[in-house]
Amino acid sequence: MAMTVKNNPTATLVLGELNKNVSKLGKQLSKVANGQKIVSVGDGTADYSISERMQAQIRSLRQDIDNTKTGRSMLQVAEGGIQGIVDELREMKQLAINAANDSNTDADRATIQKEFDEKLKQIDDIVATTNYNGKLLLNGEYGRWHTAMVTDNPNGSSNIVSTGVIEPSGTPITLASGNHTITTAGVYVLGTGFTGDITIADGLSGVKITQSNSAQLTDVHIIGPTSGNANLWIEGLNIKNTTDQSCIRFSGSDNVLSIKGNNNIDYSSYMASGSVSNEKATINVGGGLTIEGTGTLEMISTHTYSAMIGTDNNEISNADLTINSGTYVLTGTDSRQNVLNSARAGAVIGSGICGSIGDITINGGTFDIFTSGDAAAIGSSMGVSYMINSGLAGGGDITIRNANITAVADGGACIGSGVDNTIGNITIEDSIIHAENKALNHTVLANGIPWLQYLIGSGAGIGSGSYRYYSDGANAGDIVIRNSEIFSSSNRGAGVGSGYKSYAKNITIENVTGQITSIKGEDIGKGLEGGVGTINISGYPEPTLHETSISGTPLKIHTGTKANQRINCYIENLGTKALFNVKTDEELENLANVRTRASAQRLLGSLTDPSVEGPLDKAINYALNEMTQVGSYINRLEQTENTLTVNHENTTSSESTIRDADMAKEMTEYTKSNVLAQAAQSMLAQANQNSSSVLSLLQ
Question: Start and end of every Flagellin C-terminal domain (predicted)?
Answer without folding.
Answer: 616-698
